[in-house]
Automatic annotation (TrEMBL):
UniProt domain N-acetyltransferase: residue ranges: 4-160
PANTHER family in the cross-refs: ACETYLTRANSFERASE, GNAT FAMILY, N-ACETYLTRANSFERASE ACA1
PROSITE patterns the UniProt entry points to: GNAT (PS51186)
CDD domains per the UniProt record, alphabetical: NAT_SF
Protein name: GNAT family N-acetyltransferase
One Pfam family recorded for the sequence: Acetyltransf_1
InterPro entries documented for this protein: Acyl_CoA_acyltransferase, GNAT_dom, Mito_N-acetyltransferase
Superkingdom to which the source organism belongs: Bacteria
GO MF annotations in UniProt: acyltransferase activity, transferring groups other than amino-acyl groups
């Protein structure tokens, strides 16, 4: 079930969030971020934040926010995380589909992912199946802990 995230549900998800940012393989977040800083980034600052709940356990989450201000505020941006032990269950797909529905309801006309690490092949395949295109490559944009500098992609989808 998808429902809005709050402080309590984020704190429940925090160990998985922390583990993902410590790995430094998919998110350009500071590995030293605190739970409070992460909550502010993921839940308080964005327009919306939702989680995938099973038996009151948060298995995945996403945020939705405007990608820019003013004349570009019709394009939104989202970030998604799924607990590593819950991967492969279709949760990221369901969260992305839900985020597109909510984005349309909020009046957004497009969705853009600003920095999808090129080595995150699983996510790239999923986003492509959901209609996103790679519209740009940022050379050596990400310092991968095992592979060194790798490219990041800008991915985009019109929601109309």
């Amino acid at each position: 079930m998808i429902a809005a995230m709050n402080r309590e549900s984020f704190e429940q998800f925090w160990p998985a969030f922390k583990d993902i940012i410590l790995q430094q393989e998919t998110y350009a977040f500071d590995a030293e971020m605190t739970c409070e800083e992460s909550y502010q980034l993921w839940c308080a600052s964005p327009i919306r934040s939702y989680g995938w709940f099973e038996e009151n356990v948060v298995l995945g989450t996403y945020y939705l926010k405007a990608n820019a201000m003013g004349p570009s505020n019709h394009i939104c941006n989202c970030g998604y995380m799924v607990k590593p032990d819950a991967g492969g269950q279709g949760i990221a797909r369901k969260l992305c589909e839900h985020s597109q529905l909510i984005a349309r309801q909020l009046g957004f006309e497009a969705m853009q992912f600003n920095s999808v690490v090129s080595t995150n092949e699983r996510a790239i395949r999923l986003w492509k199946t959901l209609g996103f295109d790679i519209i740009g490559t940022i050379p050596k944009a990400y310092r991968h802990p095992r592979l060194g500098y790798v490219d990041s992609f800008i991915m985009h989808k019109l929601l109309g």
